[in-house]
Amino acid sequence: MSEEQLYGQRRRSRAGRGFSWVLALIVALVGLSFFIPTNYYVTRPGSAIELGPMIDVEGGKKDETGAFMLTTVRMGEANLAWYVYANLSPDAELMPKELVVSKGEDNEDFVRREQAVMDNSQKIAEAVAFRLAGYEVKVEKEGVWVMGTLDGLPAKKVLKIGDIITAVDGVRTAEAKDLLQALASKKAGDQVEITYTRDGQEAKTVVTLVPLPESKSVGIGVRPDNKQQIFIPKKVTIASQGIGGPSAGLMMALEILDQLDTAKDLTKGYKIAGTGTISLDGTVGRIGGINHKVIAADKAGAEIFFAPQDTPDATSNYQEALATAKRIGTSMQIVPVKNVADAIAYLDGRKPKSS
């Protein structure tokens, strides 16, 4: 071998070793990125789940031709790798951690809150569906639902997400406005006795009122919501383990109504997905991550997607859903709804799907 050939071989060998070191370094950095936390959560398309197998209404019937589906968003803490991915992909979004988990809360608090609002959404969906089917539904105000506790304030030490405040100094607090009224005449340093229930057990605690952040009033530091007891004439079982949040309310109401109405098939044979919170009057409300839900529904083969028409302009959930549908090129029909009745009217106007 000539000197030039030997030199060329050594040069290629050094270049090969250099490339191997660079490749090893890249692999190491990529691997390390999965262990470097960020101050963000990442959201991306979840799944579309048929509600028929999940919901059972006593004496009801289930369709075999079509299906109602709830849609989900996949969410998790973003490490550096997910942070980079979310900045490159149109199908992933970053959310500041403080918008997901309040200061002082942990993931357990987040899960408890999401499960609590899912439970409430289920009960409201049942009430709406039974009323639409012509049944009498009784609603009793149960108390003030603790949906969060503020870091550094008195409630943080004694109350948990999901607790229900039923009285202040022995005076019943049937809803959130009653709690505010009970504390309105108090001042910082005053002590009040809070009666609450946790997992069905009543308890009492005494807390000292403090000034609330960014407010002239005093309080205990909770994020309140209204909790009501709903009585329906038939048993409804909903197996939603692992699914949290309020956004399945619309679709659960439609599935329950479909099972109650044994005379017709509300689905008309279509695969129908959608999303939206629900109120006792049937109003459908705005949700987050609707772009991810449209993608999940499309992947599951849905033909119709109900989206909340929460505002009359381009910022509505409906317009967001339309934009995503156009971007991914789906043939799925995006339908705006302001009330459960809108969804029912749309389906009543459809011809049954031909087999």
UniProtKB/TrEMBL annotation:
Catalyses which reaction(s): Hydrolysis of proteins in presence of ATP
The transmembrane residues are 21-42
Q: What sequence ranges are listed for the domain Lon proteolytic?
A: 243-350
Per the UniProt record, one Pfam family is Lon_C
Q: Which PROSITE patterns match?
A: LON_PROTEOLYTIC, PDZ
Annotated GO molecular function terms are:
ATP binding; ATP-dependent peptidase activity; serine-type endopeptidase activity
Location of the PDZ domain: 134-200
Enumerate the UniProt keywords alphabetically. Hydrolase, Membrane, Protease, Serine protease, Transmembrane, Transmembrane helix
Which superkingdom, per the lineage? Bacteria
The alphabetized list of GO BP terms reads:
protein catabolic process; proteolysis
Supply the EC number(s): 3.4.21.53
User: Per its UniProt record, what InterPro entries does this chain match?
Assistant: Lon_proteolytic (IPR008269), Lon_Prtase (IPR027065), PDZ (IPR001478), PDZ_sf (IPR036034), Ribosomal_Su5_D2-typ_SF (IPR020568), Ribsml_uS5_D2-typ_fold_subgr (IPR014721)
Q: What does UniProt list as catalytic?
A: 247, 293
Read off the PANTHER family from this record.
ATP DEPENDENT LON PROTEASE FAMILY MEMBER (PTHR10046)
Q: Which family does it belong to?
A: Belongs to the peptidase S16 family.
What the entry lists under NCBIfam families is as follows: SepM_fam_S16
Protein name per its UniProtKB record: endopeptidase La
Lineage in the entry?
Bacteria, Bacillati, Bacillota, Bacilli, Bacillales
